[in-house]
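During the reporting period the student researcher (J.K.) took over the structure-prediction task from the postdoctoral fellow and processed the backlog of single-chain submissions. One of the processed entries is reproduced below for the supervisory committee.
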Amino acid sequence: MSIAEPIAPATPLDWRRVAGFFFMVVGMFMAILDIQIVSSSITSIQAGLSASSDEISWVQTSYLIAEVVMIPMSGWLARLLSTRYLFVISAVGFTVMSLVCATATSIEQMIIYRALQGFLGGAMIPTVFSAAYGNVFPPDRRASISVMIGLVVTFAPTIGPTLGGYITDALSWHWLFLINVPPGIIVAIMVWNLFDIDQPNWSLLNSFDGWGIALMALFLGSLEYVLEEGPRNDWFENSTIWWMSVLCVVSASFFFARVLTFRNPIVELRSYSNRNFAVGSLLSLFLGVGLYGLTYLYPLFLAEIRGLSAGQIGQIMFVTGICQFITAPVAGILSNKLDIRYLILTGFSLLALSNYMLLGITWEWDFGDFFLPQVVRGVGLMFCIIPINTLALGTMAPEQLKNASGLYNLMRNLGGAIGLAIINTVLIERTDYHKSVLREHFTPGDANIESTLQGLGNMIGQTPGINGHLAALKELYLLMTREATVLAFADCFYILTVCFAAMLFVLPLVRKPTPHAAASAAEAH
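J.K. obtained the following structure tokens:
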């Protein structure tokens, strides 16, 4: 059994702790935002660091791999160091590495700095979750706190690419990292002075599981690498992807064997004996698919097919953010008054519906066409994430919360990685498929094709020095590629529709949560 420090019984609201917790939420927002904020500025960073297209992707990948390794470790570290110490160390490390990232002069430096930034900052996210459902807030206030956390978790990745584009256009890519420094310093100082809910438990060092940490790092790191790089490198056709997959399977086997047999493992899997936590983690995995997958798909379509700028994309994407803000308090109130299983049912139904509405997408779609699907998506996200947080963590015993929070957040991040891997693979393969189908209709001698080529050739050929026929063939090929790509986007939305609809069949496994009773029992114990 794992060693846990004594948990103090719940007390009335301590406003110093509450203020400290709000600063912790700001830190979590920064950590989640940094996952996506560089995505729209990759080309600027690539030019500034003289990096190749293969190398620059590691600016994102290194951060994600390191963060995924830290998140499940955070439970053990929080018990060892205490919540306050761990969060402040994480905030300071994240802030320092943000400053260092802005000084990078080569892609090698940037990859190392981003990995350290993701690793050090990764503990802030699960620590906030465990504190929210611990003994800082009484059970009747936790739905309101879940609203705030839900907004941060959904809103930060939504505005990340747009905010990053604005900052890069107005200043430079260096400010993507420099903007973290002032709030990072404030967060670390305020949390250190205001938030103190537990004490370090140094006795955990007596059974330090070094092998468990090493195996977990190999397992999660190689898994994240395969998911991130697989779509770009033809999956198992690439030798590196194949060997990393082998490393993932082998290290996972040894890791789970270690966790299940070691006296005090680095990650405690007993939390999954709680059926609601297990189902909630599964729902969080699929929610991560939608949260990160759709945040990636919308801007990608608007940039590649519509050719919109970061600012224009932000105006369209902002609809989802506004709907999240409006819906969040409603979802919080209903979570206190209704069976949250019905709220989750409603949320996943709306997410499925929002993707179903996108199946007829064409290259001409703009703000008006995306408006209603985004409204439905924004409402659905908040009706999912707030109740799922309560479902998974609201009934956990206080001494299990730190470990459970790490596992829960890990599932959401892995869901995002899996979703992006699937989406990128579908876009590549289905674009090729649709191009091959469309190509069959572009046959020489066809009257419509010849007429189109002749018209395009005559129009383009009026420019001196241009071969009208060849230019027309190129334009026709680009047209075919655009339509094939749009059809591939529709295929992605279809897969996401099925994915969210499938979650409706998981809900019968959930027991009716009784968070107040569970919390009272835990406090009495």
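The committee noted the following: DSSP finds 20 helices and no strands in the chain.
J.K. will present the remaining backlog at the next meeting.
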